[in-house]
Amino acid sequence: MSLASSGPVRIQLCGALAIERDGQRLDGRLLFTYLVVNRHRHIPRDQLAEALWREPDPAAVDARLNPLLSKLRRVFGADTVDGRSTIRLCLPDAWVDLEAAAEAIHRAESSVAQQDWARAWGPALTALFVAERGFLPGEDAPWIDETRHQLTELRLRALECYAAAGLGLGGTELAAVVRAGRQLTRLAPLRESGYRYLMQALAAQDNLAEALAVYGQLSDYLRDQLGVSPSPATRQLHQQLLAAT
């Protein structure tokens, strides 16, 4: 399939790898994924080879790499792959889910900082949906692990924004905040924000006893793991909840 003369490309790197242009889909490949993740810089050939193969033979790099690059040029156009000693993917109008998620979380966090809960809600979900899909399951390489780590952090930030927006909106969104808070405490048990969001959401649902129990769980965990107490912000919230009983 050739996508060279069609419109802008949509690239989904998370979850099921997919490349689409004007409704036509092409199965993704490791080389293409690496070039997309690094598409804003030139990549030396030896670095590209190390990303694809564990111990590449320097004498065989060109013989293995050139056919793959030629295939990309046939599929996306001759100008898609730029350079010889260094390589850069040229798809300036492409939509990439990783980049869209990164842009969405910035918008969500900015809206949370301005307490514009309605504007924060949508971008937070966009980032969350992308981050939850995972990245290149079954593949193993340092650059893949680094991208997965970035996705994990993005997922936590998206859950925090989603919880903050839900608390601000209140009403039926409180149940979603409880779920987000529980996810945060499970994914990052040393990250106190999840416990605070969970405590606030439970209290807003008139479940004060359960909210106070969450604080007890956090205190016990921090003491057992690190020998420390919750942060001043969390202790202050705990005092506010105690005063409301």
Question: What brief labels describe this structure?
Answer:
245 residues, alpha+beta, four-stranded mixed sheet, 10 helices, elongated
Rg, Å, rounded? 23 Å
Average pLDDT over all residues: 90
The number of distinct β-strands equals 7
**Beta-strand level of the residues, as a percent range?**
5-15%
Helix-strand makeup class: alpha+beta
- Largest beta sheet: strand ordering: 3-2-1-7
Summarize the structure.
It contains 10 helices and 7 strands.
Written overview of the protein:
The chain has 245 residues and is of the alpha+beta class. Helices cover 62% and strands 9% of the residues. The protein is built from ten helices and seven strands. The strands form two sheets. The protein has a four-stranded mixed sheet. Strands 4-6-5 form a three-stranded antiparallel sheet. Helix 5 (117-131) packs antiparallel against helix 6 and helix 6 (142-169) packs parallel to helix 8 (192-204). The longest helix has 28 residues, at 142-169. The radius of gyration is 23 Å and the shape is elongated. The termini are far apart.
Protein topology:
Elements: E1 10-12, E2 18-21, E3 24-27, H1 30-37, E4 43-44, H2 45-52, H3 61-76, E5 81-82, E6 86-89, E7 95-96, H4 97-113, H5 117-131, H6 142-169, H7 174-187, H8 192-204, H9 208-226, H10 232-244
Parallel strand pairs: 1-7
Antiparallel strand pairs: 1-2, 2-3, 4-6, 5-6
Helix pairs in contact: 4-5, 4-6, 5-6, 6-7, 6-8, 7-8, 8-9, 8-10, 9-10
